[in-house]
Design goal:
By secondary structure, the chain is an alpha+beta fold. The chain has a four-stranded mixed sheet with strand order 3-2-5-6, covered by helices on one side. A two-stranded antiparallel ribbon has the order 1-4. A two-stranded antiparallel sheet has the order 7-8. A hairpin with a 5-residue loop joins β7 and β8. α1 crosses α15. The protein is flat. It starts with 18 loop residues before the first helix and ends in an 8-residue tail after the last helix. About 10% of the residues have low confidence. One of its GO terms (biological process) is DNA-templated transcription initiation. Belongs to the sigma-54 factor family. Keywords: DNA-binding, DNA-directed RNA polymerase, Nucleotidyltransferase, Sigma factor, Transcription, Transcription regulation, Transferase.
Length: 498
């Protein structure tokens, strides 16, 4: 094999997206709240950007806002900075717009008092709405431990045990207590470690620091319970059999009747297999709809973009006036060119977002009208490519338009992606969504004879009788996704004749 080093010229085509195009796609993908933050950031970085200010409920301000919108749509929307021709035509339009304006400007840029007040209000709201940090599992246990009168060495080991517990793991002890002791520890040290573990296991929540599920459940049993011995026996020796609903085998080995085992199992269901999970920090985001869907008097659905909180932007009149100022230097003129370019791209991107999101939402609503009228069982199969073809855009544009967007409908606030579902065909050739099949599957299982529940093969036959051809592996997959146990686990042995 011969190797050589040299320079070689090679021509290739590489498709690259311009930064401004990337910005447009990012803005399309943003939900309303994220877009607000982006606009605020751009306004802080670009002094040429201004927004229509004033109370929208005031008639005078409403007229002024309307005139500003009209002015922007006529004079500014078509403004595109053309660097190839030194921007001659574009800046002439800017100068003409300024000539038509009778406003007087200062020689320096000032942030309006309304804008500063709005920013201060937003910061105040953010601080006022900030959630306080909830108490963690470890803190909760340490506070209880501090109130106990125990040996200092035992307390130190107990603190080490608590430090290893994790709420996301249910609060189980996954580290052997011996590993928490220094090398060369004695039997007395190990005895103290076991004592420390018993101390931690005596804390609330009951069942904490268990080394396995059986120990966790046994720690939660009340010794004064009339069924304490029976429950303890089931947990120690027959936990897997209970999970698999093998009640006849348990009855044969223990002598307990099927009815008695059922009652004991119901008591076990009251115990908590993950006592530490209650301290998980759950974040439930506030969902703000981006689209409002309303019905008019004739019952037709009307789509309205809920972007009232998105400010209406325009290019600063002050900087337009600076272009004709005699003291405007070349550096300042170049600076204004760049900022006008960025401001116009942002304004156009926001307008394009409004247009695309409205068209996509209207097409989705038109396709899923039965779902909105009749409910989830009437949802129809829908792919993003279908909406892309209908609207006349690329499928990736539809994907970005619906990403993290929510729509307020008569059936509640739903994510736009909820309307896109796969499906199959019935024997009659009609399309049916997988959601409809899952609902039918749930209905069949709810109505089955619990003494002889449907197997997956039987469910396939029942769906076939309903005109839905589905493979057995598909039924098994959806059954597991829906959290429905197998036929053996669903069987009620108390209904079985002996």
């Amino acid at each position: 094999m011969r190797m050589s080093v040299g320079l070689h010229a090679r021509q290739s085509q590489v498709q690259k997206l311009a930064p401004r195009m990337i910005q447009s796609m990012e803005i399309l993908q943003m939900p309303t709240l994220a877009l607000q933050e982006r606009i605020e950031q751009e306004m802080n970085e670009n002094p040429l950007l201004e927004q229509v200010s004033g109370d929208p409920m005031s008639p005078d301000d409403a007229d002024e806002d309307s005139s500003s919108k009209d002015s922007r749509s006529e004079n500014e929307k078509e403004l595109v900075v053309d660097n190839d021709h030194d921007n001659k035509d574009d800046f002439e339009r800017l100068l003409n717009m300024d000539a038509d304006s009778s406003s007087n400007f200062d020689d320096s840029f000032r942030r309006s008092s309304n804008r500063m007040s709005e920013e201060a209000d937003r910061r105040h709201d953010m601080m006022a709405n900030a959630q306080s940090r909830p108490e963690s599992l470890n803190d909760f246990l340490l506070h209880q431990l501090a109130e106990m009168d125990i040996d200092d060495e035992v307390e130190q080991i107990a603190e080490r045990i608590i430090s290893t517990l994790n709420a996301s793991d249910g609060g189980y002890l996954r580290t052997p207590v011996a590993d928490m002791l220094p090398p060369g520890h004695t039997k007395e040290d190990l005895a103290k470690a076991e004592e420390a573990l018993r101390v931690v296991q005596s804390l609330e929540p009951t069942g904490i620091a268990a080394r396995d599920l059986a120990e966790c459940l046994i720690l939660q049993l009340d010794p004064q319970s009339p069924h304490f011995e029976e429950l303890q026996k089931l947990i120690r020796f027959y936990l897997n059999d209970l999970a698999e609903n093998r009640l006849p085998q348990i009855s044969k080995k223990t002598g307990f009747s099927i009815e008695q085992i059922q009652e004991l199992r119901m008591e076990l269901h009251l115990l908590n297999p993950k006592p530490g999970a209650a301290f998980l920090e759950t974040y439930v985001p506030n969902v703000t709809p981006d689209i409002i869907l309303e019905q008019d008097e004739s019952g037709e659905y009307r789509v309205r973009l809920d972007d009232d909180r998105v400010p209406n932007l325009f290019i600063s009149k002050y900087y337009r006036s600076r272009l004709q100022a005699s003291d405007c230097s070349a550096e300042e003129r170049e600076f204004i060119k760049q900022k006008i370019n960025g401001a116009q791209w942002l304004i156009d991107s926001i307008e394009q977002r409004r247009s695309t999101l409205t068209k996509v939402s209207e097409a989705i609503v038109e396709h899923q009208k039965r779902f909105l009228d009749e409910g989830p069982e009437a949802i129809e199969p829908l792919k993003m490519q279908q909406i892309a073809d209908k609207v006349g855009v690329h499928v990736t544009t539809v994907s970005r338009a619906v990403d993290d967007k929510w729509i307020q409908t008569p059936r509640g606030i739903l994510p736009l992606r909820r309307f896109f579902v796969g499906g199959t065909q019935t024997d009659d050739g009609d399309d049916v969504a997988w959601d409809t099949i899952r609902l039918k599957l749930q209905e069949l299982i709810d109505k089955e004879d619990k003494s002889k529940p449907f197997s997956d093969e039987a469910l396939v036959e029942e769906l076939q009788n309903a005109g839905m051809s589905v493979a057995r592996r598909t039924v098994t997959k959806y059954r597991k996704k829906m959290g429905i146990p197998s036929s053996r686990q669903r069987r009620d042995w108390t209904l079985t004749s002996t």
